Amino acid sequence: MGDRTALESALFAVLDPVEKDIQRIYDALGSQLDSTRSRYMLLCDTRACVERWVNRVLLPMSRNINQGCYTTRLPDEVWSDIFARLPPTERFSIPHVCSRWSAMARGMPSTWTTLEFLPRDNPFLVETLVPRSFPHGLSLTFNFSDGRYLPLLNQWAPVIDSPWVRMRRLYVLRRGCSPTAADAVPELIIPKAPMLEDLCIEGPVILAVDKDSATALKRARLTQVAVACHPSFSAWPFSNIESLIWRPCPTSSFYEEIQFLMRGCVALRSLILYGLGTRQSPVQDPSWDDMSSHPLQQLTLMGSEHFFSLGAVYDFFAFVPHIIWYDDDFDPEVPPGFIDQVGRARKILVRSSLRAGIEVRNSGDHKLYDLQVLDLLRRELLRIPEVDTVLYRSLIRNHLVDLELPLEVWYGIGALGRLPFLQLHRLVLHEIDAIMGTTCASPTCPALREIVLHVRTDPGQSVDLIPFIASLATGCVFPLESVVLSVWDRTALGAMLEEPRPTLGMERWANVVTVSDDYCQSVLDGGASFYDGEMWQDTL
Question: For position 324, what pLDDT does the model report?
């Protein structure tokens, strides 16, 4: 039977009564079986029996089973035999099958492993069917918009031999609910469930965990779920969980819950946080635990509603070697497909690529850490609250190797932080005329080797960039390899093109090159080509 398909197994089960009918006809003939008339009667009766079963059972049942709809009216014993032979992966809707089983006195298939309950189902079916199914590795799906099944799940929690003990997968789907008050969010208690490996909860739900909760959980997807931090224990008990997708409940205390999760998820290697929004209570200066020894390898931050929270979140996850930030928000109603939509996100920052110096390129063959960071800073940095600048400050200073942005933003970064740009190798600045009157100190760049400055001045106006360049050169570990000045009018540089004055740091220059402003477009292309088709480095 192991090689049979689901349909073949079901048909085999139904053919068994046909065989019994034919056997009864054969036994009734007895010693008269040798006569021609008896053999003819046997043939006719057998044909009638087979046709009756084919017309009544096999044809409609084959259509229904192939369509995944088990509505054929069969005796309870037949359905029990059929579904006992179906593979564990087969899923079906309970009321279509057992609408005849009112009292559940007989015919209960105890080998069922996968049960799905829909919004229109009677909760009585859940209360009756689930406790009477005894296979190890039970998979349950509750798809409903109200909280009708949650009290029943919570009722099973303290029972020693409850369905939780043999549950392998649990999906609780409360789609289409958007309560605004915290007291309107129901609670789901997760008790001891040693076989539970896959958990999916689509809220709004408050997840309350017991100190003896499941220890076998490997994967979890929590959508609009708040985690209840009970005082009876100090850590999230799912210590074996390796992959977690979490969209916090809007009314949750996010900063407390993320630490609560991380303290207990000691085996977590992949974490996706999405939908971080302004409805979560902001904390200007959260006190984070030290997670430097945590094995988390990849963090994905998703969602556009992060005007206050992402900066602090990034500070907490500064130890993670691979961080991806997608700026597109996703519909919480379709979480099974949102991972596939990630490829269409507009912005991405990959720390591991920046740290290793790997050139990550998009479909236009542009380095993502050039163009994406440039676009991000130009549109975001000057208008976000102070707490969010932690994200950009930490990322840029520690891992950025190539940066292009307006001079005003460059000075804005310098005024916000204390640490230098440790890995910055090439710096491109626009709108150099804004340097006049600037009092802020320039950030320190010990690894800087190349500077490109776009000077925008009015006709007849001159600008002296020597103090600015000297301040950058002073903080460099090695002499500058090149300084490229892009100007509309070469006369605006004035005495800069003459013999350098004895200014501190000027002796560290290796080359000074001036080009026309046609070079601006080549810089936007990543600095790989000169306006006349030559490599600009070859002109040094």
Answer: 63
Q: How far is CA 427 from CA 401, 423, 452, in A?
A: 9, 11, 6
Q: Which residues contact 196 (CB under 8 A, 6 or more apart)?
A: 164, 167, 168, 169, 170, 214, 216, 217
What's the mean pLDDT in 368-397? 41
Q: Compute how many other C-beta atoms are within 10 angstroms of the C-beta atom of residue 5.
A: 11
Alpha helices (H) along 361-518: 368-380, 389-399, 407-416, 466-474
Query: Which residues does 274 contact at the CB level (< 8 Å), separation at least 6?
Result: 245, 246, 247, 300, 301, 302, 303, 329, 330, 338
Q: Is 189 helix (H, G, I), strand (E, B) or coil?
A: strand
The most confident of the ranges 257-266, 299-308, 364-373 is 257-266
**CA–CA dist 291, 37 (Å, integer):** 88
Give the separation between CA 505 and CA 472, rounded to whole angstroms: 8
What are all long-range contacts of 147-151, with beta carbons under 8 Å and residues at least 24 apart?
A: 147/174, 147/186, 148/123, 149/117, 149/123, 150/186, 150/187, 150/188, 150/205
Give the H/E segment covering residue 204.
strand 198-209
Query: Is the distance from CB of 240 to CB of 218 less than 8 angstroms?
Result: yes
Top pLDDT among 227 and 109 is at: 227
Interval 112-165: pLDDT, tens: 567 777 776 666 667 766 776 655 667 787 877 666 778 888 888 777 778 888
Encoded amino acid at 105, one letter: A
Alpha carbon distance 427, 523 (integer Å): 11
Position 526 confidence tier, pLDDT thresholds 50, 70, 90: very low
Average of per-residue pLDDT values in the chain: 60
Q: What is the mean pLDDT of residues 364-391?
A: 39
Sign for the CA dihedral angle at 363, 367, 369, 375 comes to negative
Mean pLDDT of 416-445: 66
Q: Please list, in sequence order, all residues whose beta carbon lies within 8 angstroms of the beta carbon of residue 160, skipping any fewer than 6 positions away.
A: none
Measured at the CA of 509, the angle between CA 354 and CA 475, to 5 degrees, comes to 55
For the CA atoms of 279, 284, 290, 294, what is the dihedral angle to 10 degrees?
30
Predicted structure pTM score: 0.46
CB 405 within 8 A of CB 377: yes
